[in-house]
Sequence to fold (263 residues):
Amino acid sequence: MKVLSVSETENILKNTPIGEIPEKIKEFEADERKSVKNLIARYSRKYEAYQNELVRLDAMTAYEKDLRKRGFSFIAGTDEAGRGPLAGPVCAAAVILPEDCVILGLNDSKKVTAKKRDELFDEIKEKAVSYSIVMESPEVIDEINILQATYSAMKKALASLNPAADYLLADALTLLGISIPQQGIIKGDAKSVSIAAASILAKVTRDRLMTELSEIYPEYGFEKHKGYGSAEHIAALKKYGPCPIHRRSFIKNFFPEGIDENF
Fold:
């Protein structure tokens, strides 16, 4: 029987579905080469990390599992991105995930790297039963205030789901004027897979838009800070004045004598 090279062994383990790694490792346990033993140890750790991730994700489905036991079928999570920036829209998303959906790495968007958020963004859209993403403009924010603009975006996203949600999980808030039961969960984007999925969709959508807008308004550096009040952003704002996507109600304190729109 041919003895596989170390690289051939590694290639087999690399291409083995992660759930099948323990069985595949057994095929190489008799190999006394140190390099192979190191491979076995590395892939054993990888499998252990995978099991730990499944446990973490299972804990994040507790609310959804309880609601399904109570007879709800289409449980939506909603979350927003962009309540605090000085510029750009606020973005909200609503997501319904299928029962027993597993999306490895899904978490509060603030706890995930930009690269991983982009990967999760595509996987969430692919696996979701339904999702919707809505933005409210800086003009709307200035007109009705950021909290009401956030609520408006969330309610529009919820109303756009097809199939419609029969229960809503939200991140630490209550939406008035909706017809389905709901629950606000403090730090819900780290406790519910549905809310976490919504947080990823909202964050990635808004970040991508701000990067696109940075090409139109390059002097502000939106691609770096996404409109938040960084020192660089504030310095540019004072130097160049506001652009059309700045929230006038947010930046007025930087211009005590009033905002000169012809700055």
Notes: The radius of gyration is 23 Å. The mean pLDDT is 94. The chain has three domains: 6-59, 62-206, 213-254. DSSP finds eleven helices and five strands in the chain.
